[in-house]
Amino acid sequence: MERPVRIQVRALEPYQTTLDAMRGAIASVREAGIGELWWVQHPPVFTQGQAGRPEHVLATGAIPVVQSDRGGQVTYHGPGQQILYVLLPIGPWQIAVRGLVEALEGSVIDLLAVYGVEAAGRRDAPGVYVQDAKIASLGLRVRHGVSYHGIALNVAMDLSPFRCIHPCGQVGLAVTQWTDHVGAPVQWNALRAGWLEALVRRCQLTVLSD
Predict the structure, then answer these.
(1) Which of the pair, 172 or 17, is modelled with greater confidence?
(2) Between these two residues, 108 and 209, which has the higher pLDDT value?
(3) How far apart are alpha carbons 198 and 188 in whole angstroms?
(4) Count of alpha carbons within 13 angstroms of residue 168, beta-carbon side
(5) How far apart are CA 37 and CA 41, in angstroms?
(6) Is residue 119, in this structure, part of any structural domain at all?
(7) Burial code of 132-162, b = ≥16 C-beta within 10 A, e = fewer?
(8) DSSP code string of 6-63
């Protein structure tokens, strides 16, 4: 079965703009049978997932808190964090949700391995970890057989807002990022290309040209 996808690099845009756009794309993704992978960064924002509990949101100051319909609890997004949103017709493609979660985690693990960084996922706490610190957060939603939301990799950002929450509902969870472990300057195009290659391999996708 072919699994064609198109790529969008959407750069920096407000979280609500992206969320509305994802919801609006669900019907066309399902009808066309063509997935979409969106590279996005957001201005500073806390997002609260469907399982979110208010006690995990501490003193957020001027940074807004937005209710999201993804799975999981509270997390932070900001400039310097690369997010990969995955709008895929996983129902028609017969991809299990757990399989997609593992593929997303695995794509980040594979990418970090290229740069000599050992990372791993956790069955009981979705995301990617370097030692005991979280480097990538994951949350998904499936509607009408189409996945949306995705995975956020901390690359070169201000991590201090994570201290304003219990990240992903885990009290005392340490958070890390790419630049803490990879000495070379961040090459965003190369990072995205390597990440995409890993996900294409794990999900057996075919990238369509423009």
Answers:
(1) 17
(2) 108
(3) 15
(4) 19
(5) 13
(6) yes
(7) ebbbbbbbbbbeeebbbbbbbbbbbbebebb
(8) EEEEEEE--HHHHHHHHHHHHHHHHHHT-EEEEEEE-SSEEEE-TT--GGGB---TTS
Give the Cα-Cα-Cα angle 34, 35, 41 (nearest 5 degrees). Answer: 145
Q: Write the pLDDT tens digit of every residue in 116-130.
A: 999 999 988 899 999
Tokens standing for 71? 């799975």
- Active-site residue list: 168
User: To the nearest 5 percent, what fractions of the chain are helix, strand and coil?
Assistant: 35, 30, 35
State the residue range of the domain holding 201. 4-41+81-152+176-207
Give me the number of domains the chain comprises: 1
Q: CA-to-CA distance for 159 and 169, rounded, in angstroms?
A: 16
Helix (H) or strand (E) run with residue 113 in it = helix 97-114
In a domain, 194, yes or no: yes
**Listed residue (36, 35, 42, 37) closest to 15, CA to CA:** 42
Structural tokens at position 65: 């808190």
Q: What is the pLDDT of residues 137-154, one digit of tens each?
A: 999 999 999 999 999 999
Please name which of 112, 105, 113 lies closest in space to residue 84, comparing C-alpha atoms.
105
The predicted model gives 69-79 an average pLDDT of 91
